[in-house]
Amino acid sequence: AQKITQTQPGMFVQEKEAVTLDCTYDTSDPSYGLFWYKQPSSGEMIFLIYQGSYDQQNATEGRYSLNFQKARKSANLVISASQLGDSAMYFCAMREGLWDFGNEKLTFGTGTRLTIIP
Amino acid sequence: GAVVSQHPSRVICKSGTSVKIECRSLDFQATTMFWYRQFPKKSLMLMATSNEGSKATYEQGVEKDKFLINHASLTLSTLTVTSAHPEDSSFYICSARVVAGTDNEQFFGPGTRLTVL
Q1: Distance CA A96, CA A30 (A)
Q2: Interval B33-43: pLDDT, tens
């Protein structure tokens, strides 16, 4: 079974609208972390936001927020007021286990290509 | 934030030659670095975990003798693609973990695009 599933290969969104990128995950480990990265055409992976499995509140970072629904095992990224510069590939990733114990490996989803339309 | 560099950013080589890619942490020490491979329009796949002063840990299916990893210092890890073939053409990205940093980030390099003719 896929550990990270991103079901939207591509999305087109009008500028200034909000957009939700879907991510579901599969793990039996009670301790895990969920990440979202942005990859522009240059190729660099840019960290956007993080959610720990024990975090009580949904993570927010500026225009980015993570809609964490633990029971449903989903961690959707919400981008508010989209901008042209948001056009990129977006990857959801998971780290299983507690970081303290050297669990640093990330498993990535297949990504969603977001295109913002002027 | 922490900065990770990769060199070269692009390399084109002939089949059969070896190519070395460097990953450096510029403003922090990294005991652990990771090497990923990304095929066109595909996700990142972890190839190996590089530990300073010890042997790398390879993921299942990754040829150790093909992809040599050396983590000689706390700021440098190298990936050498030996006897490269066209199927090795890919985008290789490294990442690094801060030694005493937060628990929620790996810092990624800008990637190296390898084309084997």
Answers
A1: 8
A2: 999 999 877 78
